[in-house]
Amino acid sequence: MILRFFALTLFVFVAGLSQAQVRVENASFEGEAQDATTPVRWHECSDETTPDILPGFWGVTTEAADGETFMGLITRDIGSWEAVGQRLPEPLVKDMCYEFSVELAHSPTYAGYNLPVKLLIWGSRTRCDRKQLLGEVPYVDHPDWKKYKFEFTADKDFPYIIIEAGYIDGLTFPYKGNILIDNCSAFQLCKRA
Predict the structure, then answer these.
(1) Is-contact 30 182, C-beta < 8 A?
(2) What is the CATH number of the domain that holds 37?
(3) Residue 4 confidence (pLDDT)
């Protein structure tokens, strides 16, 4: 009887832990460093353009914040930008508050795509349909990795997330820029009193 009670308690505890966080697969964008390549477990969410797995290409020599590689996204002066998405192992749940972090940097030597850009993180109901802005960093111009933290409440169930490079607000023209991305955390339930 005690053994059954212990097993049931352990099962409820483990089930609760799995609901307390939503993992991001290949959260550090590991893979063989190469240009125009989407990291494993991620998919492209922008037309005719793919991210890069770095370092080692386009003049980017920054070391990874976590693991061996990271992802670079660019914006172009023709009005296009790069974005990737992922179907999460479990969806973000409507009306739940989540915390999330990611490490970001900027490369001053990215084959001419050298200006700073912003980062947007979206919740999505389908593969690349941006529905709710979950987090935004308006301007990343530092060459060293810095951790950015976000908190949001999902307004729908979101089985997908999208990570996107964007032009800095207030500029009236498209430009060549970059952002480096590494070490995404799991989406954790908010720690509120």
Answers:
(1) no
(2) 2.60.120.260
(3) 52
